[in-house]
């Protein structure tokens, strides 16, 4: 039986779910999970991996590793889609509006994802780990999207 003190906050609850979603990742370099929430209800989830029907890096290897491409560079040379992109795409695929929603992600979104998040109408993001992309943080600030780094005690 849960006690009042042992019950997680909503932010912890949704971030923990994002961590669970990340376990489905098929990326060999970075494991990321994302949950999009509105009114304390999960609208969509996503993890990083290849598009539906395409071979995953865990099955065929990582081109970025083979070419020694640094993290955050040459995103186009990757079979995978970022967790945030997958969550936004899944919402669109199923006709779920995410305007005004909050996004929980295990990593700070990159610049490409930041632009998608802004245009999707997401108003707040929580992330656990950093992804060194100051331009993404600048865009969030300029667009009025609140970006909150949560405690990394896990």
From TrEMBL:
Do you know which Pfam families this protein is assigned to? dCMP_cyt_deam_1
The protein's matches in InterPro entries, at most eight in alphabetical order, are given as: APOBEC/CMP_deaminase_Zn-bd (IPR016192), CMP_dCMP_dom (IPR002125), Cytidine_deaminase-like (IPR016193), dCMP_deaminase (IPR016473), dCMP_deaminase-rel (IPR015517), Deoxycytidylate_deaminase_dom (IPR035105)
Sites where the protein binds Zn(2+): 82, 110, 113
Active site per UniProt:
84
Does the record carry Hydrolase as a key word?
Answer: yes
Report the sequence similarity comment from the record.
Answer: Belongs to the cytidine and deoxycytidylate deaminase family.
Q: What is this protein called?
A: Cytidine/deoxycytidylate deaminase family protein
Organism the protein comes from:
Candidatus Desulfaltia bathyphila
Q: What is the lineage of its organism?
A: Bacteria, Pseudomonadati, Thermodesulfobacteriota, Desulfobacteria, Desulfobacterales
